[in-house]
Amino acid sequence: MTVPEGTSPKVSVPRLRILWSFARPHQRSLALALVLALVGSGMGLATPMVTKGVLDALGGSDSLRGPLVALLVLLVVGSVVMYAQWTLLGALGERVVLRARESMVRRFLRATVPAVTRRPPGELVTRVTSDTVLLHQAATGAPVGLINAVVMLFGTLVLMGVLDLVLLGTVAAAVAVVGVLFAVLMPGIATAQQRAQDHLGRLGGNLEGALRAIRTVKAGRAEDRTAERIVADARISAEHGVRANRREALAWTIALAGIQLAIILVLGVGAWRVAEGNLEVSSLIAFLLYAFGLMDPISELSQNITALQSGIAAAERIRETDDLDSEEGAVAAHAVREGPVREAVVVVGEKSVRDTPVRDTPVRDAVAQDTPVRDTPVRDAVAQDTPVLELRDVTAAYGPDAKPAVRGVDLVIPRNGHTAIVGPSGAGKTTLFSLVLRFLEPTGGELLLDGRPYRDHSHDAIRSRLAYVEQDTPVVPGTIRDNLLLSRPGATDAELRRVLDEVRLAEKVDALDDGLDTPLSGAAVSGGERQRIALARALLRTPDVLLLDEATAQLDGLTEAAVQSCVRARAATGAVVTIAHRLSTVIDADTIVVMEAGRVRARGGHGELLATDTLYRELVEALRIAAPPTVRNQPFSVDRQPQV
Q1: Cα(99)–Cα(105) distance, rounded to whole angstroms?
Q2: Phi and psi at residue 284, to the nearest 5°
Q3: Contact 467, 574 (CB under 8 A)
Q4: Does the pLDDT of residue 548 top 80, yes or no?
Q5: Cβ contacts of residue 5 below 8 Å, gap of 6+?
Q6: pLDDT in tens, 310-364
Q7: Which of 47, 234, 570, 573 is least enclosed, having the fewest CB within 10 Å?
Q8: Shortest CA distance to 548 belongs to which of 511, 517, 522, 581?
Q9: For residues 364 and 462, what is the distance between their CA atoms, to the nearest angstrom?
Q10: What is the DSSP letter of 517?
């Protein structure tokens, strides 16, 4: 959320409702905290009056035991109540922050891929970390503190009036002036703080991007330029912070000076009234105690209003994440129109069948309970010759106003075999994978799984049939074991060892001190090792369809040969689809699909396409590679790994 220049974020009722939405689940705890605060304030208000009683007892030669015992009781009870209130509000604030963070993390991970990727990751991280800190005080302590401060202020003024109305008039005038000045200065403080927070979020996003590209930044000798661009947001944030601090300092200076002036006036007028016999000395002392304590509710009001304004801005930024499109929301919308979602899952033929009873529950009920939608498969029989995946006249774009990334694509993926997709950059190859994985929804045409439209399946059910190795192969935070078990947490160590052997990583892992429990980071493993870990994770799934987005690009020749052998073995029992830029990947494919400008322009075997398709031939000839003597499945040897 960005505050336009010249505007001020006022504490309006709709904005307060946004903040209250975070505190609403904890109404009872807030009410108890408010009661404790009011009891503590009552103890504080009673102290000057009891002090007056001590002074009156001295003047009248009465016993001091009663007033002194009363002061001691007020001290002990007030301390206990204060401790209880602070611990309650502290724990309550942490629960509010935890709930907000948990909600955002789950929403980010359940949102559609385009909804998440259109925002800088650093900005989303800032909302989880920084904005929730501002929410801590604003959603719990600030409401209680505001009410308590107002009660304390009016209670003090009322008791002052009981002691002497003339002196009350003097103090009331000073309080009114301070209140007007605070009302004028506080909106400017809130505006500056909110703008500082906005630029802090931008700084986080830019810094996160720069750190991900740190090698590129250094190779381009762009450290200073990149730092200057990032620090620019830090400077602007600091400027707004300084502006807020100046206004806040001015407000507090005026408030303190006003109260001090009121005390001076009270001393002067009070001494005159004592001399005239219109006021007792004990009453003047009690009145002065109230005047000295008057700054407490005023400062509490100021601090909580500031916290409230900052918290409202943070709450609005957090609530903006509710607008992220959710994959479950799309499934729920379909369920409302069409009824319960039922999943038809393969298999008839060579693969084993695991019969599972159906759970015929509308998806909207699952979404209403804020639980992930997971359809229990209904194992309907599917003919072996039915394609596992099919795209029919599919068109898709990355935004409502964006140019289609693919258009009119027809593609059949058989239940067994290796399909390679090739083409120049920007041809739409990765977009096809995004559609198959349902990261992206088509704007035209339809996709089918086992002959049934994608709209009849949940996202979870579709992805349970697929395994994906993406081109960048990022490392998931955690250990090697955590990375391998990401999509199949129940796998045994023997199964982990098997897939590590297949990708030639077993010996390297065994040589590590902690073995599978060695922590991983993006800088701790090479690009080839990241690819092999990702491939091992995919192979562990034994999926119906294995999707490889140039999964061998960073492997050496020997390791690639082993991986290709593994891919061929997997293609014999299931479907393998690869996005290929290396001829070694293409040469053994059962079917090669050539894409250009978002369309499928040709398909066939390697030799067939060399003879019939100009683009494919140009891609090969550009690398000075001669065609093999037969269509495919013949030995092919090159000194280097060419790219198609």
Answers
A1: 10
A2: -65, -40
A3: no
A4: yes
A5: none
A6: 788 788 888 888 888 888 654 444 444 334 443 333 333 333 333 333 333 333 3
A7: 573
A8: 581
A9: 18
A10: G
Residue 155, Cβ neighbours under 10 Å: how many?
18
The burial of 180, by beta-carbon neighbours within 10 Å (0-12 exposed, 13-18 middle, 19 or more buried), is given as exposed
- DSSP for 148-200, please give it: HHHHHHHHHHHHHHHH-HHHHHHHHHHHHHHHHHHHHHHHHHHHHHHHHHHHH
Model confidence over 457-495: pLDDT tens digits?
888 889 889 988 887 777 777 888 888 888 888 888 899
Return mean pLDDT, the chain: 78
Separation of CA 459 from chain center: 20
- Could you give the CA distance from residue 283 to residue 270 in angstroms, rounded to a whole number? 9
Distance CA 602, CA 612 (A): 9
For residue 228, CA distances in Å to 122, 207, 219, 222, 526 come to 18, 11, 17, 10, 30
**21-78, pLDDT tens digit by residue?**
888 888 888 889 899 999 988 888 888 888 888 887 776 666 777 878 888 888 899 8
Q: Name the token pair of 3.
A: 């505050």
Which has the closest alpha carbon to 411: 375, 385, 382, 436? 436
The pTM of this model reads 0.69
